[in-house]
Structures are given as C-alpha cells and as structure tokens.
Amino acid sequence: MNNVTLKKLAEELKMAPSTVSRALRDSHEISQETKDRVKALAAKLDFQPNPHASSLRKNQSRTIAVIIPEIQNNFFSQVMNGVEEVARQKGYHVLIYLTHEDQKREMDILHLLRSGRVEGVMISVSNTTKSFEHLEAYRKEEIPLIFFDRVCESMEVPCITTDDTGAAFKATEHLLKAGCKKIAFLSMAGNLSISCGRKSGYIKALTKFGLSGNELVIECGPDDETNRQKIRELLQSEQRPDGIFAAVEKFAVNTYEVCKELEIKVPQQLKVISFSNLSAAALFNPPLSTIVQPAYDIGREAANILFKIIDKKKLLNTEKKVVIPSHLVIRESTIGKHYPKPSVFLKQ
Amino acid sequence: MNNVTLKKLAEELKMAPSTVSRALRDSHEISQETKDRVKALAAKLDFQPNPHASSLRKNQSRTIAVIIPEIQNNFFSQVMNGVEEVARQKGYHVLIYLTHEDQKREMDILHLLRSGRVEGVMISVSNTTKSFEHLEAYRKEEIPLIFFDRVCESMEVPCITTDDTGAAFKATEHLLKAGCKKIAFLSMAGNLSISCGRKSGYIKALTKFGLSGNELVIECGPDDETNRQKIRELLQSEQRPDGIFAAVEKFAVNTYEVCKELEIKVPQQLKVISFSNLSAAALFNPPLSTIVQPAYDIGREAANILFKIIDKKKLLNTEKKVVIPSHLVIRESTIGKHYPKPSVFLKQ
DNA sequence: AATATTTATGTAAACTGTTCCGAAATTCAT
DNA sequence: ATGAATTTCGGAACAGTTTACATAAATATT
Fold first, then answer.
1. Model confidence at B346, in pLDDT bands (50, 70, 90)?
2. How confident is the model at residue B342 (pLDDT cuts 50, 70, 90)?
3. Cβ-based contacts of A1 with chain B (< 8 Å)
C-alpha cells in the first residue's frame, strides 16, 4: 500500500493539508508557484489520495454496481462491455454481482448496497423474482437505480430495453411466412415483462395469421437436461410443431441438441429461430436465424442515463423509457418456401 | 442513502458509539443484554455501517479487482463466474476492469488501484503488454497480486494456469494422428507465456512426428476481417495446410467463416481444432473439436489463493504455481482415418 | 492615507466507524 | 472486609481528505 498521505505531503512541504488538497485539485485560490511545488512532490512520491477518506468526506464513491443474472451469456457480457466503457471514461469503478436467477441473492445484494458503497445501481432482474419489495425498498434509499432488459414496469424507474414484443412478433411472423403452421414458443419462466412481452409478440403474430388458439408455450429453465427432456417430448408428441421460437439463446441450443439426437432436419422438418447474441450462430448447423439485441448499446445507454441521474441532471422524457430496437438476422434455420436461400456469407 | 449512523444509534440508546460498535460486532466485552438492545434498534432502523468509514479506519476495503482483456469471451466470463462465487461467500466485492488488450489501459488501471481501493488484484495480462514495469511497480506496493491464464512468469507472483504446452501438444498430436501432414497454427500476437506455451506444444508435436521445420505460424489479432484475410491467403496459397490449430476461439470462428466462403470442406479438406470454451461448439457445422480450459475452476482457485494471501496465510508451494489441466473434446471437425466417428450426441 | 477588496494560506471541524486507554462496577479470592 | 481480577462501558483519539471560516498580506479604491 502506498502510505504517502496528504498530511505527510503537507508536512514535508511545510504547508497546511488544506493547501495541498486544493493545490492538487487546481483550485483557483492557490498560487501557481505553490501548485507547482505541491504537484512536483506529489508526483515524485507517487501520492495517491486515499479513496475511502475521500468517499467518506464527499459522500461519493465513484463506483456503480451492475447486477445481472449471469455473466456466461453473450447478452450480458456485451452489456458489461458497454457499461465498463462508459464508466471508465467517467472515471468510475464498476462492481459486478451475479444473482444466478435467484431472488434471494438478488435481495441480499441489494441489501448490501444500501450503504453508500455505490452511487448507482443497474439491474436486470432475476427471472425467479416474484415480488419487488426489495427493489422498492432500495429505491426509497434514493440511490439512483436503472433497469435494463429485465425490468419491473410497475416501478417509477428508468428502463432501457429492446422492443421485445415487436421483435418477437417479427420473428414469429417470419416463421409463419416461411411456411410454419404450428409454432412452439420456448418461454423463460417467470412473470417478467420481458417474458410477457416476447410471449405476447408471439401470440399477436399467430392471431394476425388467423392462428389464435394455437399457442404452444413450453416453459424452460436453467437446467439443460430438463429443457432437452421437454423439447424431446414436444418433438415426439402428436402435436409436433414445425417451428420453434426460443425466447433465449440457451433454449435454441437445447433445441439443436435434441434435433441432432432425434435426427430432425432443420429447417426442412423444423424451423428454429431465437433471441441470441451469439456471433457464432452463423456457424451452427444449420446457421441459426436470430433476433440480435443491441446489448452493447443497451449497456452504454443504461450507464449514460445512470450517470445523468447521479450528476443530478434532469432526464428527458425520452430517457425514462428507452427502447433500442433488436434486429432479425435470417439464416438457414428458418429458410422455407417464401424465402430465397441467403447469401453464403451473412455477417453476424 | 440510509442516513442512520452509528452515532445516532448511540444517541438514541444513550450509549457511547464505541459500545454500539462493539455490540454490533459481537465483542466479548459487551453484555448480552446490551447487545440485544443495540441489535434490536439497529435492525429496526435498518442500520448499515458506512463502508468508507470502516475501510478508512481499518484500512481494508473488502473489495478485490479482476482485470481481464475482454469479457465477451467464454473463457473470461466463466472465470468471472468462479471469482464472483468465491468472493460472495467471503463477503467481498468484485470490481471488474477491461483492458481490451491494450497495455496503456492496463497500466492506467493498475495505477488507479495503487491506493487501497482494493485488497487484492487478479489479472490476466493483455497480449500487447511488452514490458512489465507497471506490474513490478504494483507488486512493490505490497498489494496481493495473482496472475491467471495470461501470466508473467518472470515475476515472483502466484500463477493459476492451464497446461498450455501439454494441451497444445495433444491437440496437434491429435491432428497428426487424424492424418494431417501440414498444420498451421493460428497464434495470438505477443510474447505472453500462454502464446509461447501453445506454440511450443505445437512445435514439439511436429518434432515428435518428424515434421520439425514444417512449422507454419500465422499471427492473428483482434480484427476479424484482418484475420479472415490472412486465413484466406493461407488457404489459397501453394502451401495450403490440411489442418488448422487455433490458439483461441475467435480464430477458429474466423477459420470457419473463411471455409464457408471458400467452400472448403471440414474435416475432409481441412481439419480444425481450437482452444475454446464455447459450449455451442458442438452445434457448429461441423462440430468443432476443442481444448476446453477449466475456466470456472481457474477463477475459483485464483480467488481462493488471492484470499489466502489477503488473509496472510502461508501459501503451500503447490499453490504458488497452480496448473489445472485442460481437456480435449474431439468432435467432427478433426475426424480422420485414425479416428472412429464419434457418438452422435457428444455433450459439451 | 485610510478603507475596501482580493489573493493566498492556515485552522479546525466534519465525515463515520474503530480502537486504545482508562474508569466504574461487579465478581472472586483470601 | 480488603485487594485483585474481571466484566462492561465511556471518552477520546484516530484514519485521510475536504471545506467553511478565519487571517494575513497584497492590491485596489476613494
């Protein structure tokens, strides 16, 4: 630990600590000569102000927290990338916390953060989160809070999301136009807005194509084998679908695994599309059509808005609920009669 | 911000702050009755001790930092997962910093951390890092430091790695046994131990099979298009290889992209193997043979050792240089005459 | 020249929890 | 009962930085 403190600097320079403090921060009320002397010695001794003392005094930690369900997920790691970038430019530090989709952990983490350790929190709530008291309680602490992707709409808190409903609608519509008659939706458990949004986009599209009542929703979860079992049953049942729309990447992977196992041909016998930020989706067999979320931008935008709140700037109305569009990347897994073969090399 | 402080508690209870402090930490020199009264009120008012005051006085922040080149990478995100898990159990917080493979950023970050903000640092050094003065300087601060995966061997610092040389040897040997005569190695730039280790494993295997002098090393980097261009040239050249060994996942993806573009058949015309922690590698076309690194375990182990140092426990000699083996997962991308067809469903 | 203003620096308090030292109060041993 | 030891708690210093206020000197104003 660097143990040269401001006081020692002051002693060495025969000045008051306040003078040193001000000189280092280029206060106008310090003469250039003094500033130069102070800075020279500070540089020489590699003085680093103690962040805890500073945080205590100023009541600001220059730190934010990001709470996400998991990090082994391209979406969330891209978000982290965006957040870190913005925070770094701002001179802020980023604490990372993982809930592993567990409400209890989420509550514990939020509780930990109710003490001035961070100046703001960005959270994508766990899908097992049923009640929002812990979030409400946190908001009452008046520490800036932002939701991204997995939001809690009932709360008066800025949200950065993508257009889940619209994107799901487009994905389903795409499957229908490709010739699917019976589409299963692999849904994420929980009652999050994101789950509901995607499901409702799916249902809307079915309705538009006169297939209302034909919904086929399978709830999948964190365990791969359980998911595979459910998908296996689905694909071996009487009501075997000819299209699958996976709400998250993981379920599409499970679907591919089962298809391989059961030797079901994609897209001939089954078309598959999924929300996914996996860049390698283009290399799958067959290349997987995806709805790509603007994860990096969501991270950046969320961080920018969080810092605006931290800096007590007034938010524009458009910044309270930000929706950044996702886009469809069509690849072979959904190629059908109405679509031509895509060019051989489709980026992303 | 929760503004109930220890002093206010003390005032309310008509006690001295010191008594309250001790009662909350279950000091033996406080009567049970007093402890109960203090804790009851603390719970009622949801008192959270100010972490900065505590850190300042005790000179410990209960925070560690993880510095990695990037987070959009399965290896590093799995490492983070392991680290977070251990830290959480220890009651520590985790700061994350990304260098984006840039030595300057790495230096800046390390400089930031020379001030007691964290109690320890775990780093996987950037591949553009040529000099290690910033790391040496940091070590001199006597803040616990740990290297993982991308280490700097010349320094007297604990390292947690995988057996890069051995794993690369096995991968190359596997290609050779599968019938490859000319194997190209897509190397990561820089002079890191990890690059050298993998390259030397590759060369060792060639030598063992009487192919010394036939090395074909292509340096790849962060830019996809540049990499594809290099691979394209390689695969269209006179000395076109029949096997490619990618030092990192990204380069294997680039290779697949070029193969698709040039309509080169894997594994018939070209066998491909890569270091990779991508679980979806099994779904590639064709399924990609990989060397899977024990990323989660590396993260856990590195964190455990870091905490041992923080707690000033003596390290065993075996804990100073920990090597956790990687394992080969053979899939269709390297199937050749000496290998049978793998079972249809290979996990991972 | 006398007062007002500006400039440059020092003094001391504040931020909040921890801890050293000492003082009652209680218990124990003799 | 007396002294010693133990238990329980308070007082005050302390960690390092920032800042409101004060002070002194220098400059400006009338």
1. very low
2. very low
3. 59, 116, 141-143
SS3 B227: helix
How far is the alpha carbon of B285 from chain A, nearest alpha carbon, in Å? 5
Q: Which residues of A227-259 are buried (b: 16+ CB within 10 A; e: fewer)?
A: bbebbbebbeeeeebbbbbbbbbbbbbbbbbbb
Residue A54's CB is within 10 A of a number of other CB atoms, namely 18
Strand order in the sheet with B321-323: A321-324, A159-162, A145-148, A120-123, A63-68, A93-98, B93-98, B63-68, B120-123, B145-148, B159-161, B321-323
Measured between alpha carbons, how far is B184 from B215 in angstroms, rounded to an integer?
7
pTM more than 0.85? yes
DSSP assignments along B162-218, one per residue: --HHHHHHHHHHHHHHTT-SSEEEEEESS--HHHHHHHHHHHHHHHHTT-TT---EE
Residue A162 parent element (H or E): strand A159-162
Tokens of B184: 């190209």
Q: Which residue has the higher pLDDT, A188 or A339?
A: A188
The residue with tokens 């309705």 is A207
**Tens digits of per-residue pLDDT, B82-139?**
999 999 999 999 999 999 999 999 999 999 998 899 999 999 999 988 888 889 888 8
Give the DSSP letter of residue A332: G
Nearest to A273 by CA among A325, A201, A345, A207: A201
- Mean pLDDT on A99-117: 94
What are the tokens at A212? 């209302």
CA distances to A304, B73, B109, B284 from A85, rounded to whole Å, are 10, 16, 13, 31
Answer whether A285 sits within 8 Å of B285, measured CB to CB.
Answer: yes
CA distance A255 to chain B (A): 10
Q: How many CB pairs under 8 A join A and B?
A: 151
Interatomic CA distance for residues A270 and B182, integer angstroms = 39
Cβ-contact A287, A166 below 8 angstroms: no
Q: How confident is the model at residue B345 (pLDDT cuts 50, 70, 90)?
A: very low
Cβ-based neighbour number of residue A226 at 10 Å: 12
